[in-house]
Design goal:
By secondary structure, the protein is an alpha/beta fold. The chain is built from 13 helices and 15 strands. It has a 7-stranded mixed β-sheet, with helices on both faces. Strands 11-12-15-14 form a 4-stranded antiparallel β-sheet, with helices on one face. A two-stranded parallel ribbon has the order 1-13. A hairpin with an 8-residue loop joins strand 14 and strand 15. The longest helix is centred in the last third of the chain and has 22 residues. The two termini are 28 Å apart. Bound molecules: pyridoxal-5'-phosphate (PLP). The site of pyridoxal-5'-phosphate (PLP) has 13 residues, from helix 3.
Length: 381
């Protein structure tokens, strides 16, 4: 059975993107590759809304986030970092691994820290090198809605602004230059709707110059090398060629749809999920004010069997859902509402979830859930 991949990455990949990967191998030190790289750079600049560099790293998102740390953060630096879930925790550890002092701005899981807490940290800590923000905490389904204000604060305090937008870039509005984001990290398998294997970073002029002047002591995730090779249309190391073709095709789809329309579609689909699950009687994990537009996290009723539920949803409906992380394993499940997500994905997933819950003896209102989903999707074109 063909599966509907409703994970917070990898997600469903459109056919033209899959087909693009069948391109025969080429020499990555050739004009053909230089042309491909140039196209990706130009399309990427439009999508990230930046005049900075677009770098594709042959690694998953973690490599991209790690490169954003290892190329900017030095021993002894003070770095503010938001921690409100698994990915913020990892980020703060990476910052500390560099010998820097991580000033953690925390929030209970399910919530997001406030911009005033970030502002206070800037005021209290003197010279801060950078602010790292997880724009969308995939483990809890929570998004930060003050990226613009954070960019303004960083400009005011002369700090670099880095966004881990791995799970919402392309699904939420993140105009990189308008928000003063120096480094924005995402990955191919999330809202870009390409297969996993590429981390994509935008690096602004100021951060690029700093990195060139202060290269990190490493070979592979060494961004200055990528900048220098990009000038002659190459990457320093053998790139994952099929994914470069896939990214080129995925960028075309994004540009054809238009970023505004794409972001609106993500918002409508996520809102439809939230209202459908609420009408059915399920609890959203995230504080409603900070809920994500790309990852919908839902709490299980007390004593519910996660493995049995997700197994039945997959076996009977072909819908693949994600479980919870760490201490939330078995307590919540997550729906990736990203990439290609549209009416069909939302309706099929809501039907699979509420019907399976009912079959497993939970009190859910199947009809109310389905009709809330239908109403929520009305404005989708
Ligand atoms: C916010 C965030 N950061 C980083 C990562 C790591 O990405 P990857 O699993 O591609 O290494 C993820 C993956 O889900 C993520 O959601």
């Amino acid at each position: 059975m063909k599966k509907l991949i409703m994970l917070p990455g990898p997600t469903n990949v459109p056919e033209p993107v899959m087909r693009a990967m069948l391109e025969p191998m080429i020499n990555h030190r050739s004009t053909s590759f230089s042309k491909l790289l140039k196209r990706i750079m130009e399309k990427g600049q439009k999508i990230f809304q930046t005049s900075g560099d677009i770098i594709g790293l042959t690694t998953s998102g973690t490599g991209g986030v790690e490169a954003s740390v290892t190329n900017l953060v030095k021993k002894g630096d003070k770095v503010i970092v938001t921690v409100f879930g698994e990915f913020g925790t990892r980020l703060s550890e990476e910052i500390e691994d560099m010998g820097a002092h991580a000033i953690k701005i925390t929030a209970p899981f399910g919530d997001a820290p406030s911009i005033s807490a970030v502002e206070e940290a800037f005021q209290k800590n003197g010279k801060v090198k950078a602010l790292y923000v997880v724009a969308n905490e995939t483990s809890t389904g929570v998004a930060v809605r003050w990226l613009k204000q954070a960019g303004d604060l960083c400009s005011k305090h002369g700090a670099f602004f880095v966004a881990d937008a791995v799970s919402n870039f392309g699904g939420d509005d993140i105009p990189v230059d308008a928000y003063n984001i120096d480094v924005c990290v995402t990955a191919s398998q999330k809202c870009i709707a390409a297969p996993p294997g590429l981390a994509i970073l935008s690096v602004g002029k100021r951060a690029k110059q700093y990195m060139l002047d202060n290269p990190p002591p490493m070979q592979y995730l060494n961004l200055p090398r990528y900048f220098k090779y990009a000038e002659r249309g190459e990457t320093p190391f053998t790139p994952v060629l099929p994914l470069y073709w896939a990214l080129d095709a995925a960028f075309d789809i994004m540009l054809e749809e238009g970023m505004e329309k794409r972001i609106q579609r993500h918002k409508i689909c996520a809102d439809a999920f939230y209202s459908a699950f609420k009408a059915a009687g399920l609890e959203t994990f995230a504080n409603p004010q900070n809920r994500s537009n790309t990852v919908v996290a839902l709490e299980y009723p007390q004593g519910f069997n996660d493995k049995q539920f997700r197994g039945a949803v997959e076996d009977n409906y072909g819908v693949v859902l994600a479980g919870g992380f760490g201490e939330y394993s078995g307590k919540l499940f997550r729906v990736g509402s990203m990439g290609e997500v549209h009416r069909y994905h939302v309706m099929t997933t809501v039907a699979a979830v509420v019907n399976t819950m009912k079959q497993m003896g939970t009190h859910v209102n199947v009809e109310a859930g389905l009709s809330a989903a239908v109403s929520g999707l009305k404005s989708l074109s």
